[in-house]
């Protein structure tokens, strides 16, 4: 049951689960065999779990904004709940995702084969495609806003605000504006970010990145401090290198060589790479990324600064590379990975569980449910997990559809009928086996056949 609630985004502890089973199980279960002779409930069947989730949705709705709208509190728009359910349907979600990807591909193709804005070859096609995509995105935005009842809850989501801004820019461009405001077309490239809202797996990545910002920021501060320290030292140590336009190197045979220190840009080596604090910072960033720093930056100083004494230059660059590339960079990666582990859903608190139990008792007392006959069968745990998985797949970026208890009940009834037919067929097989054993010869008892009673949760 704990895993079932977690799949539905409603976490409960093991102790809370035991309370719900013990106190709510007898009220919602269809299988009376789940209650022993002492009156203790040992599990909850799929029908009971669906009813319990239905009661939980009424007591603590996953999307409370469905009860309200721009008309006021507890005044939803006509068919608002149904509009929201269809908007969150996987088919609609992947259709919108396909449209976003198609728009992104069209933008890529446009910049590849028709990049010159002053002499467009297929201007009519690009304008037509942009108009179609803008209209589709506008319809999708209005659909989403209607599901929120055009109320304040829509603006409480950052993804909704981003959708409104990007789609609003597209609508403005449809009016054929010109001048500086026409540069808003550049924002079309950011439409692909809307995928992070529509596809749940991508949304988890973005939310994990946002959740890791505080920890990563601390790691970046430490990294920045080390950069500052090494940049200050680099300016002090290396700024005057080759200041006269040349520097001298000594090889192992004590032969001296005079080498030009003028860079392709006309500066001396020390001035170009370490002339100021900001230049030293950029040079050290190049060192951290491994962008040919060993040959262009380090070796020049290694052979020409102190000739035969290479210890200072070697220690400077090796210590910097170890600290930045091997230590602090991995710390940042570790912080990111730590936040990618999905946290458990916000669980119900003990007082909320108590209130839920009282709510279920009150609701059941209003309309008692009929119980199954003692010989009837109910679903097993696999069916429960199947129903919960199909329910969880309908959740997209935090939007959870309503739990259809009647649909689950019909499936349970069909499963019970199938079990009865299976028992009848097994009985026929058993009769044939008994008849075969009645033939002349050694008589053996047929092996027992165990149907196995499904266990509830």
Automatic annotation (TrEMBL):
Residues 90-341 form the Ion transport domain. The chain crosses the membrane at residues 91-110, 131-149, 161-184, 205-233, 315-337. Signal peptide: none annotated. Residues 405-432 form a coiled coil. Gene3D superfamilies: 1.10.287.70, Voltage-gated potassium channels. Chain C. InterPro entries: Ion_trans_dom, VGCC_Ca_Na, Volt_channel_dom_sf. It holds the Pfam family Ion_trans. The keyword Membrane applies. This is Voltage-gated sodium channel.
């Amino acid at each position: 049951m704990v895993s079932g609630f977690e799949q539905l985004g409603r976490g409960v502890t093991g102790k809370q689960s035991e309370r719900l089973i013990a106190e709510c199980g007898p009220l919602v279960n269809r299988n009376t065999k789940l209650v022993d002779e002492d009156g203790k409930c040992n599990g909850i069947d799929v029908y009971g779990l669906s009813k319990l989730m239905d009661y939980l949705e009424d007591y603590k709705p996953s999307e409370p904004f469905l009860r309200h709208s721009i008309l006021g509190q507890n005044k939803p728009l006509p068919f608002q709940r149904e509009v929201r359910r269809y908007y969150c349907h996987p088919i609609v979600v992947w259709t919108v995702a396909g449209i976003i990807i198609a728009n992104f591909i069209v933008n890529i193709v446009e910049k590849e084969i028709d990049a010159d804005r002053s002499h467009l070859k297929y201007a009519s096609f690009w304008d037509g495609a942009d108009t179609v995509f803008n209209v589709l995105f506008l319809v999708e935005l209005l659909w989403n806003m209607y599901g929120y009842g055009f109320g304040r809850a829509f603006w409480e989501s950052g993804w909704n605000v981003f959708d409104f801004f990007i789609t609003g820019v597209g609508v403005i461009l449809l009016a054929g504006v010109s001048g500086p405001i026409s540069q808003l077309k550049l924002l079309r490239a950011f439409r692909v970010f809307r995928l992070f809202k529509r596809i749940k797996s991508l949304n988890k990545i973005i939310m994990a990145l946002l959740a890791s910002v505080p920890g990563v920021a601390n790691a970046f501060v430490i990294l920045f401090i080390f950069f500052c320290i090494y940049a200050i030292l680099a300016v002090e140590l290396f700024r005057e290198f080759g200041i006269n336009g040349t520097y001298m190197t000594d090889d192992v045979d004590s032969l001296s060589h005079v080498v030009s220190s003028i860079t392709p840009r006309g500066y001396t080596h020390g001035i170009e790479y370490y002339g100021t604090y900001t230049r030293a910072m950029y040079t050290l960033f190049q060192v951290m990324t491994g962008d040919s720093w060993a040959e262009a930056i380090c070796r020049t100083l290694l052979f020409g600064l102190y000739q035969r004494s290479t210890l200072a230059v070697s220690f400077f660059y090796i210590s910097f590379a170890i600290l930045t590339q091997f230590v602090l960079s991995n710390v940042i990666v570790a912080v990111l990975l730590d936040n990618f582990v999905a946290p458990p859903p916000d669980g119900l608190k003990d007082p909320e569980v108590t209130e839920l139990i009282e709510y279920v008792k009150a609701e059941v007392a209003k309309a008692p449910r009929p119980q199954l006959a003692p010989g009837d069968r109910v679903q097993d745990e696999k069916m429960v997990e199947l129903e919960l998985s199909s329910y969880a797949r309908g959740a997209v970026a935090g939007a959870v559809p309503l739990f259809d208890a009647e649909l689950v009940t019909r499936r349970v009834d069909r499963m019970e009928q199938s079990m009865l037919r299976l028992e009848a067929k097994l009985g026929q097989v058993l009769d044939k086996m008994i008849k075969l054993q009645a033939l002349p010869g050694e008589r053996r008892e047929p092996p027992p056949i165990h149907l196995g009673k499904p266990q509830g949760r």
